[in-house]
Amino acid sequence: MKDQKILNALSYFSLFFAPLIVPIAIWIFSATESTKHHAKVALLTHILPTIGAIVSVFIVGVVGFSTNSSNVTGFIGLGLIVSIGIMIVVLAIFNIVRGIQALVAKDDDPLFNSID
């Protein structure tokens, strides 16, 4: 049971040292469904800022080609950079909180422990 808690927490804390590799490895090699679930959630929260950045670059490119005003493009680009930054901070806080919750979870907590 203690190994499962550590793997759950490691999935979330991997944001700081290997954001894609660790959750994928835990998801593939884990024995319990609970640990696989937490690895999937952690992987999703690690990928979301990258997807947001790609969409932002696409939007700024489309706006840049469709208008001749650099002010509009700059304003939209700055807004997207700020929104991506806020998303990164919120997801980092989420991962820290979930990692701590996984470490201090009781053995009978259904959110962090599997029934099987």
From TrEMBL:
Keyword vocabulary terms for this entry: Membrane, Transmembrane, Transmembrane helix
Organism: Listeria grandensis FSL F6-0971
Its membrane topology: Multi-pass membrane protein
Record-linked InterPro entries: MamF_MmsF
A Pfam family: MamF_MmsF
Subcellular compartments: Membrane
Name the record gives this protein: DUF4870 domain-containing protein
Bilayer-spanning residue ranges: 6-29, 41-63, 75-97
Coiled coil regions in record: none
